[in-house]
Amino acid sequence: MYLTIDGIEKSFKNEKKESIKVLDKINIEVEKGSFVSIVGPSGCGKSTLLYLIAGLDKADAGEIRVAGKKVVKPGPERVVVFQEAGLFPWLTVLENVTYGLKLKKMPKEEAKAKALDILKMVHLSRYVDSYPHQLSGGMKQRVAIARALVMEPDILLMDEPFSALDEQTRMVLHKELLEIWRKTKVTIFFVTHNIREAVQLSEKIIVFATRPGKIKETISVPSMKDGVMPDSVTLHTEQRVLSILQEEIEKVLKEEMGNDYSFKTNHIHRDDSGDMGSHI
Ligand SMILES: Nc1ncnc2c1ncn2[C@@H]1O[C@H](COP(=O)(O)OP(=O)(O)OP(=O)(O)O)[C@@H](O)[C@H]1O
């Protein structure tokens, strides 16, 4: 297996200094070149798991391996694309994308050629000399994806990369990300609270239970041989994920609202964008 998450556990201290278990015995195996999403209620530990894979945080127990190597610290072979593009405002698009290659001491011309190739893939060839403030949110996120891909990572970790974008831009970026994924065959681990996004993008969806976060169910998304998934398949898969999550969302609501909890299961719907409101 390309990514192996073996018995991962993680706790954090809350305001009262009590230790709260956030991730409990997480075991996941991801094949090379696959596209896996994690969905689950807000606070179930999706980002925490992603940071552990990135090496940005350390687990209390268990082990993570990517391409056979044990994860002990952050590295360019496990890049993260966050919700905020986080570009350097004083650098142009091209300079932002070549920044990591410069640190790797790649010759300037080689780095430039590589960056231009990737920028073409994300349809930003016309904007190489622009500065981040001159770009839309979607374009900034494309630069962030290009900056990650130029490092030729073993795995691309994406933490709600499109959740700040409007629906139309998100759709365009979904299409582009799938094109990139098919072209580069990069392994993608994608965290989202948007069920439809997970269904449209990934081959496998890992549904998390919450408090503590653990795997509730793993769903394979029917493959799209011609690249286009019929609406009926999307809706059916979304509905399956939603029904698995319903119990978890109710658990969160009950805990947060105590005796005031009066929701009925049929009051929990996703909105038209596939989002689940503030509880997922
Ligand atoms: N550094 C930290 N210190 C203390 N608690 C933390 C820390 N990081 C995360 N937590 C807690 O761990 C839990 C899981 O957080 P995490 O961000 O991983 O959840 P999530 O599923 O990604 O949520 P969301 O969908 O809202 O982003 C939350 O209760 C959060 O408050």
Automatic annotation (TrEMBL):
Residues 3-235 form the ABC transporter domain. SUPFAM superfamilies: P-loop containing nucleoside triphosphate hydrolases (SSF52540). The keyword Translocase applies. Pfam families: ABC_tran (PF00005). One of its GO terms (molecular function) is ATP hydrolysis activity. It is an enzyme of class 7 (translocase). It comes from the Bacteria. Gene3D superfamilies: P-loop containing nucleotide triphosphate hydrolases (3.40.50.300). InterPro entries: AAA+_ATPase (IPR003593), ABC_transporter-like_ATP-bd (IPR003439), ABC_transporter-like_CS (IPR017871), ABC_transporter_ATP-bind (IPR050166), P-loop_NTPase (IPR027417). Its EC number is 7.6.2.9. PROSITE patterns: ABC_TRANSPORTER_1 (PS00211), ABC_TRANSPORTER_2 (PS50893). Keywords: ATP-binding, Nucleotide-binding, Translocase, Transport. It catalyses: a quaternary ammonium(out) + ATP + H2O = a quaternary ammonium(in) + ADP + phosphate + H(+). The keyword Metal-binding does not apply. The complex is composed of two ATP-binding proteins (OpuCA), two transmembrane proteins (OpuCB and OpuCD) and a solute-binding protein (OpuCC). PANTHER family: ALIPHATIC SULFONATES IMPORT ATP-BINDING PROTEIN SSUB, TAURINE IMPORT ATP-BINDING PROTEIN-RELATED. This is Carnitine transport ATP-binding protein OpuCA. It comes from Peribacillus simplex. The gene is ssuB.
